[in-house]
Amino acid sequence: MNQKKISNQAITRRFKKYNNIKINGFLLRGGVRMDAFMQSRANKRFVSEKTFNRTITVGDQDALKKFSFKRVVIDEELINKLSPNNIDCCHFWKKATEYFPLGSILYSANCKNKTELNEASLKAHEAWGAFGLLKSILEKNESAKILEIGPGYGAIAGFVAENYNLENYYAIDVNPLFKYKKLFKTDGKTIPEQIPNDLDVVYSVNVFQHLTPEQRLSYFEQIKDKLVVGGKFIFSMFVVAPDTEEIMIQDPNSGHIHPIFGFQDKQGNYYINFFSQFTRCNTIHELIDIFTNLNMKLELISKTVNSYCICATKL
Ligand SMILES: C[S@@+](CC[C@H](N)C(=O)[O-])C[C@H]1O[C@@H](n2cnc3c(N)ncnc32)[C@H](O)[C@@H]1O
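# S-adenosylmethionine complex -> structure
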């Protein structure tokens, strides 16, 4: 794929705004506008439906080879400035959910309220394989002790309350969105001490792509410590793998066709963006290395074009 530094002055000007922003004065609103603008500009630099004249499906990838796509190369300084390592991620997520109460939790699900969103979340978790695995564990062991990282509005908590004993369910979040005595606030990389050390399951869907590799590693190490032997860490996140890094998708609204992982740094690492944050999507090899070093057995539960659902078992 043709990689070229985009010298789009308009994008650069908008990024420059951030040079003067203090961490706690982080202007999410401005960030969102900039972000939407940047996305659309970036996508326009790729090929549009009009040019290509038909809808691209993932299976159609060969047809795209004749086009030369350009990726947006993002500046390291900007990545660092807005990295969850360097901003207050509790504040960031609080603001994100204030401005976009539904879309920040489950993007483009077309839900009207939190109840509908929780239903859509469970369907998504089911489709990714994570929820099915959790249910099969609970069917075998009704009192399995569970920790959920980043529970959103509590779709899983609702499921556990309805079918099992909620007393065995714990959750942590940088921005707790529902009231529950065992939902604890975290700094974004630490499992609070209130969480027991004999967990059967740690569960997390659609969260780890928003973290930096350092935050992820910090959680992964603590998760291993908190699990019982045989305990399972089930998670689903965006992952770049050699067979997916070049995949093109088509935006259903704009019709623009662009690489699924359109942002890279100068070293060629891939990024996803969430509002104005860019976070590196670990390649699958990095995850394999981490869990091998932690001596945890890795199983791929399911895979889509941009995400993996993985189960890591403590040996
Ligand atoms: C995209 S939402 C997904 C919510 C839920 N898991 C679902 O699938 O519906 C991400 C959730 O993770 C939380 N979160 C983001 N970064 C986090 C971190 N570093 N540690 C814990 N929670 C985090 C957010 O506050 C939010 O509740």
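# post-check
Residues 89, 93, 105-106, 121, 149-152, 155, 172-175, 177, 186, 188, 205-207, 210-211, 215 surround S-adenosylmethionine (CB under 6 Å).
The longest strand covers residues 227-238.
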